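Request:
You are asked to prepare a plain-text protein record giving the amino acid sequence and the backbone structure tokens, at your earliest convenience.
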Amino acid sequence: MMNRRSFLKAGLALTPIAAALAACGRGNGWPEGMQEIVWDRDTCSRCSMVISDRRFAAEARSPEGAVAKFDDIGCAVFWLKDKPWGEQARLWVADAAGKGGRWLDARTAQYIGGRTSPMGYNFAAAAHPEPGSLGFADLRQHLLAKGK
């Protein structure tokens, strides 16, 4: 029978192994610093809609580490505009071609219009420019001018 001291020693010995195994589980496409989105459970920080469509999701992390998740890049743009640290936030967007398995830096991604997105902003992110695609600054300006 294991006494309390032996039990604690065994637990302390296994802690580094458990940490290593937990780190291995992050190899599922989530970039460093990004919090995993729990599909069909997490809700958008702006509109409170459940995040289900893996092609349009986005996430922001403030300089202090607070995380906000979004169902549409448009929600992220409007949510960040009023934050004093909005320009310093880390921002990721799903690569529409990756269906939630690939993530892009939202500020370097290209945005293709004419897609049907969850909140009707209708832009999908891509890793490379396509004819008519917009960079983040132009997308932001377009969405804010349109208002919603």
